[in-house]
Amino acid sequence: MIDFCQFGAGRIGAIHARNIRNHPNAKLRIVVDPDHGAAERLAGRYGAAISNGTDALADPAINAVVIASSTDSHAGLVEAAARAGKAVVCEKPIDLDRRQAEACAAVARECGVPLMVGFNRRFDPNFERIEQQMRDGRIGRLELLMITSRDPDPPPIEYVRHSGGLFRDMMIHDFDMARWLLGEEPVEVFAAASVLIDSAIGEADDVDTAVVILRAPSGALCQISNSRRSAYGYDQRIEALGAKGALRAENVVESTVSFAGADGIISDKPLPFFLERYAEAYRRELDHFIGVIVSGAAPLVGGEDGVKALALADAALESLRTGRAVKV
Amino acid sequence: MIDFCQFGAGRIGAIHARNIRNHPNAKLRIVVDPDHGAAERLAGRYGAAISNGTDALADPAINAVVIASSTDSHAGLVEAAARAGKAVVCEKPIDLDRRQAEACAAVARECGVPLMVGFNRRFDPNFERIEQQMRDGRIGRLELLMITSRDPDPPPIEYVRHSGGLFRDMMIHDFDMARWLLGEEPVEVFAAASVLIDSAIGEADDVDTAVVILRAPSGALCQISNSRRSAYGYDQRIEALGAKGALRAENVVESTVSFAGADGIISDKPLPFFLERYAEAYRRELDHFIGVIVSGAAPLVGGEDGVKALALADAALESLRTGRAVKV
Amino acid sequence: MIDFCQFGAGRIGAIHARNIRNHPNAKLRIVVDPDHGAAERLAGRYGAAISNGTDALADPAINAVVIASSTDSHAGLVEAAARAGKAVVCEKPIDLDRRQAEACAAVARECGVPLMVGFNRRFDPNFERIEQQMRDGRIGRLELLMITSRDPDPPPIEYVRHSGGLFRDMMIHDFDMARWLLGEEPVEVFAAASVLIDSAIGEADDVDTAVVILRAPSGALCQISNSRRSAYGYDQRIEALGAKGALRAENVVESTVSFAGADGIISDKPLPFFLERYAEAYRRELDHFIGVIVSGAAPLVGGEDGVKALALADAALESLRTGRAVKV
Amino acid sequence: MIDFCQFGAGRIGAIHARNIRNHPNAKLRIVVDPDHGAAERLAGRYGAAISNGTDALADPAINAVVIASSTDSHAGLVEAAARAGKAVVCEKPIDLDRRQAEACAAVARECGVPLMVGFNRRFDPNFERIEQQMRDGRIGRLELLMITSRDPDPPPIEYVRHSGGLFRDMMIHDFDMARWLLGEEPVEVFAAASVLIDSAIGEADDVDTAVVILRAPSGALCQISNSRRSAYGYDQRIEALGAKGALRAENVVESTVSFAGADGIISDKPLPFFLERYAEAYRRELDHFIGVIVSGAAPLVGGEDGVKALALADAALESLRTGRAVKV
User: Fold this and answer.
1) pLDDT (tens digit, 9 = 90+) per residue, C232-284?
2) What are the two backbone dihedrals, phi and then psi, of residue B203, each rounded to the nearest 5 degrees?
3) CB distance A251 to A158 below 8 Å
4) Which of A140, B197, D16, D17 has the fewest CB within 10 Å, making it most exposed?
5) What is the pTM of this model?
6) How many CB atoms within 10 Å of residue D287?
7) How many CB pairs below 8 Å do chains C and D form together?
8) Summary count for chain B: helices (H), strands (E)
9) Chains that touch D (3 or more CB pairs under 8 A)
10) Contact C106, C77 (CB under 8 A)
11) Which one of B259, B263, B278, B284 makes the best mutation probe of the A interface by having the most chain A beta carbons within 10 Å?
């Protein structure tokens, strides 16, 4: 049985807590959140205690730590938990600053604890199926990868201001997916972006619509597109073209029901947002993390992966400033 | 908190036990199964005790009983549980004999306990969406209902011999679905059937491929087809045509990934069988049952529904013998 | 070069005339229609002459006759054309009376001319692909065939009165399709039907919604459903289940464009009616007919096929009257 | 009646000749091709004469000229035909050299004859539907356009050497489509490309896999991808995202038939190549051209459009050389 301490009792924290509760080999022992009411509610629901971070990390009964608190607290908690000898899974990003993220990864390595970054999409069964079939050679050598990612609506402008910007907050998931599916590290990044949805986003020095091209050493190319708005729900698609064919992962929809009427054949929209679309991915991510702790294997997505995705985001920002393809 | 006793520690029992465990308002207290090893394993996994039926039903701490044992034990357990004042959810069928099933429903009524029959498909989110949209008038008056139901493979011949036959064992789900979606009681049944898959099924006096036509008082017609074999997995589709359009529920598939290659565009098959396809339905069925206990409302699908579906199965058998449409 | 005389300058006649015009080995020479204006317009468009039936059939330059005139004229024209030694393609039905249709087929046999019946759907590329793949053994032995056929709207009530009724006018196409795809002659027919769309159809002693079950000697079963109304256009689907899998032909739609918006994913409807849906089938039917004339091979669908489809329609009507499955 | 002279009796010439033959208001009078055998065969099939270019253009009976000859002859023929006062439709490109193409457009303007460029895809019913719905405001302001274009196989290396390269030969169609659907002129082009399919293509100083980003003055972005190989046939898709939703045009497939078996659900591939996929577009293109001649309206896609698409191709090549986004 793995005993968990969880930092963060918000929206994603609630998901992790429930998944821990439903996992046969896990138990949620402690919840830590500066919002005591939230901590108490979550802890109460799952029979956990509440505590402060210092005491929680000092508790020898705790094996594993989930960090689902606010982004600015991630780096400090990762280092503290690692130094306390706990296995750590941290929501992305470890830190908006790449050197700080690197430092965290280094601490975890030194302390010999597993550090996993919450790139939940790697655990989506559809994307995983694409990855497996590519590794099995179904499409032969990869030539072109296309990643489409559209949020239903822009986040609150206050969130935008502290998010690190679209490339580090949103497209970072796609950079990680690209690295994983390309199977090699991109060496060149070009980015173009616009403010088309809300001028306040531009005033916050961010963009809401963006496209990126990555080039891999083999010559394989990758197209990424992001939009902060999609009238039809959360749009998450991937397509990979290779010598022998193409793999496509379509959206996961609300139901298989369609209505055929005078206006056409109307089928259901994609699931509304990441909590619904990636519910299964979050479950499988936790299960993988527990497997890592039990087996001692390396996590599928570690601290270094967080750093490398951030490096692509930084390169995209530089490309945006310079109008040039940027070497990574 | 609702405290459960469950009869049956087999394949379906395992599903119910896990769903009880994951439900915030339920607790599995007692597991009963003549196979003590199975009972112990299941009880052990979820922190329940094992017991015998008599003691379990006498336990005043038990509020609710799940009957997932062998079919021939259902009727006796339903009556005993009802007389002990427990809320009962029983896997279909209550009994292969319609009068016996009627007697069970009567006992539950007398004892004032809710009796719910495990027609799990009513809780499938896709079929429920069809039902809701029909009730909301989306297709106007229903004219034609088509239900397609194909198992991946025939059951063991030993099972076939005691199953009551395809109409009472398999198509009974479709009869219930037809009653629910038609919104009126069918008055006429015609059946045709063949043995095409395994001659041993014919030797056991059963059929493996069957089609039925139901007629409702309004004139609405319903086509049902069943096959005991489907090379591509569990095929479960419904289509409803009305004055203003048609609703279709397509299969739930293993993933949204497709492969485009020299042989065509290959997409994933339907989920393999009912455990996978109706996993969500079983969860929602349990949740509904708990809601019934808490609120005192009538279950969506009660003892009478079990009896009426059985009456349609019996009429189909008579139609098969006589070559005539049979009035119900 | 095959020189054609065509009887009938109406809606279907226009299609045949254009297809003759566009065929490299055919020439439309004569158009005959009691409506002289219609005959002149059609003939003028394609450089043909107009004439009366007697002269046209006496013209030794004419090799082939298309009969696309009103149903009650078919039988007489078939016989006259056959006796004049012309190859004949006749729109379905040859006659509403089965003995009369048989007599026509006999005359054509005696005269040694090819007589082809316009069951255009056999030439639809999608249905032909299903037939080919079945003959190639892709699904193994056929177990269950499902044919869905829905017109967009009921025909004018005046048409209904002289149509011979839904089974002989509309479902006759499905009976032919069933015979073709089953690959054996059905031996039993059961029918149920209702008047749900327009009570005037009932007053004309016809039905507007109908379902039929056919049984073949092998035990293979066939479900047919027909409706005279479909809010979403012309619905024409076929599904065949066999030991090794299933083949499905979906509708042909107006475009491949879909719109994803707040109300769902809206894709285009099926093509509106038979003129559009079977445009390619009509072209290929004509091409097949010309091939028959040139090669001397038997047509894919001859006079006997018209008779046998009519026998199934008659059996369906008898089943409707008696409530029994009728042996054919 | 419009009387045509056609230059070129090859693969595309055969399509145009047949479409002229089947058009009610057109007649193919003269075929010109340096390969006299090919010219004779094509002319013979449609009752046309053969001639040389000079005589043909001098023939006052000719109203319209189709130029479907080899690319290096286009510019000369356009100018000669324009000076002879004929309406001209010329297969793309008018010339690989942008100034030469501009000169041709200028001559046509001076001579007051319509000059239409064969960007056939604008006449594809699916893409036209997307354009119409965008103009009708269905998706609101356009934010992101995605164009996917994959040939089934690379052309012969000899063709590659004289093609002007992927951007001017293949992606030029997508540049035209982008201009049309954006509804504004792109101002910035970035390109990345690789040789992944055949190293001989690289030795011919060309690429076989390419991605491009266009930026429009409004900030709208466009992603284009091209590949010279697609194991599953000719892949031609477009997607447009706007404020109110997205429009997608999927591939046109060989049939609507799918096979469900043990390996999955296998549906048919896209049509094999442009001759099949754009058969309807070629018909509608000719019909539009004839309408232009009759009505005096400007063609949907004129000489200037050919020049502007070429300018985008040239900018893409420059971006490829410099690694920078190039202003247009």
Assistant:
1) 999 999 999 999 999 999 999 999 999 999 999 999 999 999 999 999 999 99
2) -65, -25
3) no
4) A140
5) 0.96
6) 16
7) 79
8) 13, 15
9) A, B, C
10) no
11) B259
Instruction: Tell me how far apart the terminal alpha carbons of chain A are, to the nearest angstrom.
Output: 42
Which residue(s) pair with A221 in the sheet? A144, A215
Q: Tokens standing for A300?
A: 């599928």
- Asked if B45's CB is within 8 angstroms of A255's CB, the reply is no
Which 199-258 residues of chain B touch chain A by CB within 8 A?
Answer: 244-252, 255-258
CA angle C208, C73, C19 (to 5 degrees): 85
Torsion of CA B10, B12, B16, B19, to 10 degrees: 110
Q: How many CB atoms lie under 10 A from the CB of residue A35?
A: 12
**For residue C323, which residues of chain B lie inside 8 Å, CB to CB?**
324-325
Q: Residue B211 is nearest to which of C213, C218, C245, comparing CB atoms?
A: C213
Dihedral sign of CA atoms D116, D119, D125, D127 in order? negative
CB contact at 8 A, D154 and D132: no
Helix (H) or strand (E) holding C161: helix C157-162
Torsion of CA B128, B130, B132, B138, to 10 degrees: 170
Question: Closest Cα of chain B to D259: distance in Å?
Answer: 9
Gap from C83 CA to chain B (nearest CA, Å)? 45
Question: CA distances (Å), C181 to each of A265, B294, C128, C241, C242, in order?
Answer: 28, 55, 9, 11, 12
Tokens at residue B328, please? 């119900």
User: Do residues D145 and D182 lie in contact, with contact meaning Cβ atoms separated by under 8 Å?
Assistant: yes
H or E segment at D157? helix D157-162
Q: Which of A171, A211, A248 to mutate to test the interface with D (most CBs of D within 10 A)?
A: A211
Q: Are residues B272 and D262 in contact, defined by beta-carbon separation less than 8 angstroms?
A: no
Write the burial class of residue A6 (CB in 10 Å: 0-12 exposed, 13-18 middle, 19+ buried).
Answer: buried
What pLDDT, in 10s, does the model give residues B293-324?
999 999 999 999 999 999 999 999 999 999 99
Residues of B in contact with A129 (CB under 8 A): 255, 257
Run of H or E residues at A21? helix A11-22
Cα dihedral sign, B113-B118-B122-B126 = positive
CA distance C102 to C104: 5
Long-range contacts of A48-51 (CB under 8 A, 24+ apart): A48/A6, A48/A17, A51/A5
**Tokens linked to D12:** 């595309």
Full strand arrangement of the beta sheet holding D64-67: D49-50, D26-32, D2-7, D64-67, D87-91, D115-118
Q: List the one residue out of A13, A275, A281, A316 whose CA is nearest residue A168.
A: A316
Chain D touched by B268 (CB under 8 Å): yes
- What's the token pair of residue B79? 């009556």
> Per-residue confidence of chain D (328 residues) as pLDDT tens digits?
999 999 999 999 999 999 999 999 999 999 999 999 999 999 999 999 999 999 999 999 999 999 999 999 999 999 999 999 999 999 999 999 999 999 999 999 999 999 999 999 999 999 999 999 999 999 999 999 999 999 999 999 999 999 999 999 999 999 999 999 999 999 999 999 999 999 999 999 999 999 999 999 999 999 999 999 999 999 999 999 999 999 999 999 999 999 999 999 999 999 999 999 999 999 999 999 999 999 999 999 999 999 999 999 999 999 999 999 999 9
H or E element at residue B326: strand B326-327
Tokens of C144: 């269950």
- Report the SS3 class of residue D7: strand
User: Which residue of B lies nearest to A138 if distances are taken between CA atoms?
Assistant: B259
CA distance C148 to D11: 40
Model ipTM value: 0.96
